[in-house]
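pasting for ref
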Amino acid sequence: MMTLRQFSLKPESIPASTSWYLADLGEARGKQDLFTKQSPQKLKVLRENAMIESAVSSNRIEGVTVDQTRIRTLVFGKPVLRDRDEEEVRGYRDALKLIHEQGKNLPVSEETILNFHRLCRGDIWDAGKYKERDGDIIERYANGRERIRFKPVEATKTPTFMHDLMEMWDRCIFERWVHPLIAMAAFNLDFLCIHPFRDGNGRVSRLLLLLQCYHLVYEVGRYISLERLIEQNKDRYYETLEQSSDRWHEGKHNPWPYVNYILYTLKTGYREFEERVGQITSPKGAKTELVLSVIRRHLSPFRISDIQKECPGVSLDLIRSVLKNLRSSGKVKCLGRGQSAEWEKTAKWK
């Protein structure tokens, strides 16, 4: 709660870049109702794809992966789970479902946080429990070298810090120390620095981000996966988190790199939402348009596997069909052979 405590002094000014993000997000929220009154079938496709992408991306950031062919069944079906990875993806899906259905009435509280952890960690001994032992956040390099990236709050102090974090969040929102979106990003940073669980802190932090967005009436996460956007900018996520956590324990840290990262992610989500709503011309072609929108965003050569990662709810056959049609029209070309071949947009692409 060191960031919220810092903001309790009500800073006289905020960085210009932060102000621009807030202005853009205010405009985006103003258009929100217009976009969410589009065809229900169009929005249903976006909601389903966002649910799949969120469950897959948030776990994949933490090294949890599942068979691509089982993703849709895991998220929307009731299969017999094969392993812990599938259990954790399904659990994250359950937490997302809870937020999407009850978000506005679900409080930001310790009880909610523990429940999120219980859901996304599955049937493991410390699911829904704060850590019992201290543990540093370690970064490991390919050459075997290690370094301590951050020292979280001690296990014995975690319950007190979490209680204070909830209390300061409520006060910050009520007393308006800073803009609510800045408060949301500050809360996220403080949660990650406290690091209340042995494992699963990143996933819970992303669930909290979605929940708090709902509370603040920024509902883009219902249609565009914020987790996927974070995964796509994972290096920047870790970079800004490290920058903003430096000297956090003394309350002398600089929260703005991480705050701006969160605001940038939210802004990117709204921009993509606007683009996708405009691109989806009919429910029948919705998934085709999702594939096209992903290809449209790629500036460099890409592989079919890259498209699969960003469209986990779309079949491989459909992706291949879209690429085949684009190649026939001269808009893309294949630079090799086989599944790992790279594709590239041509001058005809518009």
